[in-house]
Amino acid sequence: MKSYIFIGGEVHGNALESPIPEGALVIAADSGYDNAKALGYAERCDFIVGDFDSTKEKAFCSRAKIVRVPAEKDETDTQLAINTALEQGADEIYIIGGLSGRLDHTLSNIYLLEFLTSLGVYATICDGKNRVRYLKERSSLLIPKSEYKYFGLIPADKEVKGVTIDGAKYTLKNATLTRNNPSFAISNEVVENLAMVSCKKGGLFVIESKDLSK
Question: What is the DSSP string of 156-182?
Fold first, then answer.
């Protein structure tokens, strides 16, 4: 089952590449409800979770189940929303927002992709300017040519071995990336219909980006 989770932070009009399909689970985490409303999906929310310390909205969608938690808690609102999606049987999770604002929240959101991948859940986080996915070891990932002009690879582990990039402006063959020197895998571009990234040992965050001013 697909689940779409709206969280806080800036979102742009193209944060959703296509309309949310009927039957998908829609969840808003705190101020993510404001983003859901801005993108026209407030009335589609099935669950709204959080301590509600940051949302501007006072009246929520009547069909949604409200899960209110204390402000002092062990999990972020995003994690609570993800837990809700998993409890409902989601195996694909698309997170909208969460890549701007406080850096600790942004990093926490990105590393949740690794957690979800370890559970066998396909996960993406996107705000319309950046799209992030996690590539686990001994696997590959396709990057289609799209409005996201650039892509970069950020090691999630201290060392990532056997990194190969095909179909891009800058290719790699069985390379090693280290977390303390990742710069040569940044600002790449898809030059064919799609590029493929694979790695043999260690995990990578694959980040697609664009300059909104261009």
Answer: SSSEEEEEEEESBSS-EEEEEEETTB-
Give 63's strand partners. Answer: none
CB proximity list for 181: less than 8 A, separation 6 or greater: none
- Specify the pLDDT at position 53: 67
Residue the block writes with tokens 């979770």: 49
Eight-class DSSP state of 77: H
Residue with tokens 């957690």: 115
- CATH 3.40.50.10240 for domain 2-128, yes or no, is yes
**Using one digit for the tens of pLDDT, what is the confidence trace for 137-148?**
999 999 999 999
Burial label for 156, CB within 10 Å (0-12, 13-18, 19+), is buried
Write out residues in the chain with pLDDT < 50, as ranges.
none
Query: Do 134-209 and 2-128 fall under one CATH topology?
Result: yes
For the segment(s) 134-209, the CATH number from 1.10.10.10, 3.40.50.1000, 3.40.50.10240, 3.10.50.40 is: 3.40.50.10240
3-state secondary structure of 19: coil
Q: How far apart (Å, rounded) are the C-alpha atoms in residues 193 and 21?
A: 25
CA 118 to chain centre: 15
Q: Is 213 exposed, middle or buried (0-12, 13-18, 19+ CB in 10 A)?
A: exposed
Neighbouring C-alpha atoms within 13 Å toward the C-beta of 135? 26
The full set of domain ranges for the chain reads 2-128, 134-209
Burial class of residue 157 in the structure, from the number of CB atoms within 10 Å of its CB (0-12 exposed, 13-18 middle, 19+ buried) = middle
Q: Which pair of structure tokens corresponds to residue 50?
A: 């959080």
